[in-house]
Amino acid sequence: MRLNPHLKRSLRGRWARWQEKWSEHDGLVTKRPSIVEILESQRLTARPYSVSALQNFAACPYRFLLSAIYQLEPREEPAPLEEMDPLTKGRLFHRIQAQLQRELKDEGLLPVKTAQLPQALKMLDRTVKDVAQIG
What we know:
Low-confidence stretches: none
Number of domains: 2
Radius of gyration: 34 Å
Number of helices: 6
Mean pLDDT: 86
Structural class: mainly alpha
Order of helices and strands: HHHHHH
Strand content: under 5%
Helix content: 55-70%
């Protein structure tokens, strides 16, 4: 303990964490009775903890506080969106466009005018479904 002041501080801090009272070694800044009362129910001797929670306590008491007492968990990363590769997307787009243009030409709807737009949109829906079924 006399050889290294950092070792001395570390050992005293570790010893203080295992005492029966909450202190600054537990990360407690203020010792208001309301806070101490809440934390007393969370002591290591007051309730059971999982092995992984105790591992967190041994490694980092603050991590233990966040995970076991406050029950905070790492944020879940959202699953990446599934995207089509550009080649597939382009192939589908051009197939739909070519088929729709042929159908519009056969029906005499080119160029599409405002009055014919509902009919052209129905044809587009039908074309998309047809191309999707073919793959």
